[in-house]
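User: Let's play a game. I give you a shape written as tokens, and you guess the letters that built it. Ready? Here's round one.
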């Protein structure tokens, strides 16, 4: 799920390159989440989504865990996506349909037309999120970009697993292009 840039991103936001081995079943992965999303969408055109993985540093004093999750968005969530960026709480980036980032989290929104969801001609809105618990609450562009690298890699992995047409519109290589700055 994580390409080399994303792995570097995890190391940057946690401040380490040593991590605990997860317990069995603790990190279900992108295949599991894709199944949850597809089943939830087939049942009632929605899904709660789920966490694909959590990375925990092996140093017990380092409490910066990185968690990656996905969900299919409903109408209210899409409204929230626009209001979050419109209110200036996040830095906004030109990636997917929209991308929002802070030093301790990032969200990437993309559309997935897939036979596993609504069909190859109907796009379903998907959100990928990365959260760093006990992460920096300051404003560090390097941490924002690291979070974007993680969420971009994870979103591409999910798009591939779901069979999204044109990879969900996500570029193969991450290019960080800021659309608007945080105003708060």
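Assistant: Ready! My guess for every position:
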């Amino acid at each position: 799920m994580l390409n080399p840039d994303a792995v570097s991103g995890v190391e940057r936001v946690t401040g380490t390159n040593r991590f605990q081995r997860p317990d069995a079943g603790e990190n279900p992965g992108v295949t599991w989440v894709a199944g949850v999303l597809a089943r939830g969408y087939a049942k009632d055109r929605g899904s709660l989504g789920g966490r694909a993985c959590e990375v925990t540093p092996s140093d017990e004093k380092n409490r910066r865990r990185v968690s990656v999750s996905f969900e299919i968005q409903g109408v209210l969530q899409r409204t929230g996506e626009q209001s979050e960026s419109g209110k200036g709480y996040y830095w906004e980036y030109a990636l997917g349909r929209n991308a929002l980032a802070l030093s301790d989290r990032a969200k990437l929104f993309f559309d997935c037309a897939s036979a596993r969801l609504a069909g190859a001609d109907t796009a379903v809105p998907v959100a990928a999120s990365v959260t760093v618990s006990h992460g920096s609450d300051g404003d560090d562009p390097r941490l924002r970009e690291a979070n974007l690298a993680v969420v971009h890699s994870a979103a591409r992995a999910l798009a591939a697993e779901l069979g999204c047409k044109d990879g969900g519109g996500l570029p193969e290589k991450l290019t960080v292009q800021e659309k608007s700055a945080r105003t708060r």
